[in-house]
Task: inverse folding
């Protein structure tokens, strides 16, 4: 279905909360917070309401990281990242080891809007767009950054930051994180430059603890309405795909840089790539086939039921394809790289969950599916469901939700500036969760 541009912008933007309120807060053990009109007064300051647990998920098979960008653990709506390790013990093999919060706790830090993990490396974005260094709310603070955590002796420690060489992109830097070997790709959303808005993808190379900017890829837009969606880029090591509202831009490695191979004039909302085949979601779900010269063409459509809901996520893992974002996740399989995708099952939550499958991550015989507005642990607290495959059938067998920091988990202690008891009159300005449309 082809949508009007404004409808698409609303559908695929991350949810936001707009509140104007006055409140009295007497909250033990929590940072003084701002009241929200869409949450009951007694829930303000609790760790779970509006946590949006499952905002981002990252897994490399041995380490699982789940962010809750609205968490109140260190500061009101400051964000937190829960890190689990694989124990191998069924039926719940993942054990919580660490809960990380913003290095400098502050309200609305956006800590964990995006995360990525690989081996001893964990990347976490922080969106300081609305909180300047002086503590005042600001819509123009260009201080977004990617925090680098390295694991040493079983503990995750803050090692440094990744920022772009060009400061013009810092206010939307970190819209997407991908780790592939020693390469790190960072998406930067649409940033006003030369009278127009441009998105970009930055490539950094890792050498020990250091990260060096290696390349910047800026798609050439033929019209402003294209609006690059750098929060949904796809990368498999040699091929980079950058979707836009009205086009898909594809690139391949060329020496130390990148060259564009194709500009497909199609609606592109989500894309996944693996080798010589990719899957595109836009005005329908289609297979993309790579040609001998490296260019891409639109192949056969993939039939998707009309009642699935709005598709926001595509994930290819081996010969499995997962399509999510509505009320359930569809599973397709193929007999080989050039074989057609055929329906093979569905992943359904054990309760009604909005935005089910946005995001999702598949690793081997495990799939982690977020429902970041799930209400089982509090209003819009969010949840992540783990499904595992057994003889071709997928079964839900572990549920992850926000929890208070357990004793002895190696979790980061409460940061500076926390207040144990407070009686505060809080005039509240309109609070926005920044949209993720580039």
Result:
């Amino acid at each position: 279905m082809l949508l009007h541009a404004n409808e698409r912008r609303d559908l695929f933007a991350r949810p936001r909360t707009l509140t104007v309120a006055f409140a009295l807060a007497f909250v033990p053990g929590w940072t003084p917070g701002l009241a929200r009109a869409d949450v009951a007064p007694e829930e303000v300051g609790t760790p779970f309401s509006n946590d949006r647990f499952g905002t981002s998920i990252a897994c490399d098979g041995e380490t699982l990281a789940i962010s809750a960008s609205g968490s109140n653990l260190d500061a009101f709506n400051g964000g937190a990242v829960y890190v689990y390790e694989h124990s191998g013990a069924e039926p719940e093999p993942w054990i919580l080891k660490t809960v990380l919060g913003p290095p400098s706790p502050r309200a609305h830090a956006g800590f964990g809007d995006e995360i990525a993990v690989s081996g001893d490396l964990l990347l976490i974005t922080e969106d300081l767009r609305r909180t300047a260094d002086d503590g005042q709310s600001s819509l123009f603070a260009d201080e977004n950054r990617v925090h680098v955590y390295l694991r040493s002796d079983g503990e995750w420690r803050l090692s440094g930051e990744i920022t772009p060489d060009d400061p013009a992109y810092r206010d939307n830097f970190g819209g997407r994180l991908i780790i592939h070997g020693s390469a790190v790709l960072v998406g930067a959303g649409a940033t006003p430059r030369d009278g127009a808005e441009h998105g970009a993808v930055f490539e950094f190379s890792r050498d020990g603890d250091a990260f060096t900017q290696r390349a910047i890829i800026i798609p050439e837009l033929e019209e402003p309405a294209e609006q690059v969606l750098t929060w949904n880029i796809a990368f498999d090591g040699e091929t980079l795909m950058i979707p836009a509202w009205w086009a898909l831009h594809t690139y391949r490695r060329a020496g130390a840089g990148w060259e564009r191979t194709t500009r497909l004039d199609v609606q592109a909302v989500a894309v996944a790539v693996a080798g010589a085949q990719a899957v595109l979601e836009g005005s329908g779900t289609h297979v993309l086939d790579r040609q001998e010269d490296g260019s891409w063409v639109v192949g056969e459509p993939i039939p998707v039921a009309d009642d699935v809901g709005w598709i926001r996520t595509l994930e290819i893992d081996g010969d499995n394809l997962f399509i999510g974002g509505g009320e359930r996740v569809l599973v397709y399989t193929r007999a080989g790289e050039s074989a057609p995708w055929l329906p093979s099952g569905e992943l359904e939550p054990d309760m009604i969950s909005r935005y089910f499958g946005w995001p999702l991550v598949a690793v081997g015989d495990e799939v982690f599916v977020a429902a970041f507005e799930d209400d089982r642990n509090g209003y819009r607290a969010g949840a992540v469901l783990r499904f595992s495959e057994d003889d071709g059938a997928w079964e839900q067998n572990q549920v992850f939700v926000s929890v208070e920091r357990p004793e002895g988990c190696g979790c980061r202690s409460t940061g500076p500036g926390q207040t144990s008891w407070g009686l505060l009159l809080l005039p509240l300005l309109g609070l926005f969760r920044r949209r993720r449309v580039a």
User: Anything to note?
Assistant: The longest helix spans residues 5-12.
